[in-house]
Specification:
Layout (H helix, E strand, L loop, with lengths): L15 H6 L6 H8 L14 H8 L7 H5 L6 H11 L3 H11 L5 H8 L8 H7 L24 E2 L4 H6 L2 H13 L3 E2 L10 H5 L3 H17 L5
Parallel strand pairs: 1-2
Length: 224
């Protein structure tokens, strides 16, 4: 990983967290200013204690836009993942359980979080977003003019959100693929992609789910 943020501010134009809060300490360059000394990358002591920095580090979408915009290709989400890995916290254990073990219970958590007497904190808002959403009825249907994938086996890698909270996404994707002529295989053995585990600094858990997904894909005959 390249070191040394120049604080040029190009990342401010693409960071969704900065666009939402308009606070510089929540921006990628602000986080790097606070956290690079913590990891021994800068001179002197970090301006804030790790407990405070950890709260700031939660405000990152992990989208990678900052790295794509940065002239030095610095990834703040990678920096955050490395620091979380170096500074374990009990919330990481809870997150691992939430992602890998209790996915089918996400809608139930959403219903509990929607009880009227509960406050409006960010964690509860996240849980509420897991409830099924109303979708607009299609105003028209288009049949593909050409079946581009006749007989080609494919598998839909759904991911945690689609599988546990938005199964309609999977059904629609399979419908489209079949209409294009593909043979849709059962991808039920896939698990989390590992992206959110990496963002949490849970590198061993990320490696495990990646291994399982690759094994499942090979067992299926390595489809598209």
């Amino acid at each position: 990983m390249k070191r040394g943020c120049t604080q040029c501010g190009d990342c401010l134009d693409v960071c969704p967290i900065f666009a939402l809060y308009r606070r510089e300490e929540y921006s990628p360059k602000g986080k790097r200013l606070l956290m690079e000394p913590l990891d021994g990358w800068g001179a002197g002591e970090t301006p804030l204690p790790w407990k405070t920095i950890r709260r700031l580090s939660r405000l990152c979408a992990g989208c990678g836009r900052c790295a794509r915009r940065c002239a030095r290709k610095l990834s703040t989400s990678e920096l955050l993942a490395d620091l979380r890995s170096q500074h374990p916290h009990w919330t990481q254990f809870v997150w691992d359980i939430w992602i890998r073990r209790v996915g089918p219970l996400w809608p139930l958590a959403g219903r509990i979080a929607s009880l009227p007497f509960l406050p409006g904190c960010s964690s509860l808002e996240t849980a509420r977003a897991l409830l099924p959403q109303e979708t607009a009825a299609p105003w028209g249907r288009i049949k593909p003019a050409v079946q581009v994938g006749v007989g080609t086996p494919v598998a839909v890698f759904a991911g945690c959100t689609a599988r546990n909270a938005r199964p309609g996404w999977i059904a629609r994707a399979k419908t489209l693929l079949r209409r294009w002529g593909y043979v849709v295989l059962d991808g039920g053995g896939f698990t989390c992609c590992g992206g959110t585990l990496h963002h949490a600094g849970l590198f061993a858990a990320q490696a495990e789910v990646r291994r399982r997904n690759i094994e499942r894909w090979r067992d299926m005959g390595r489809p598209v």
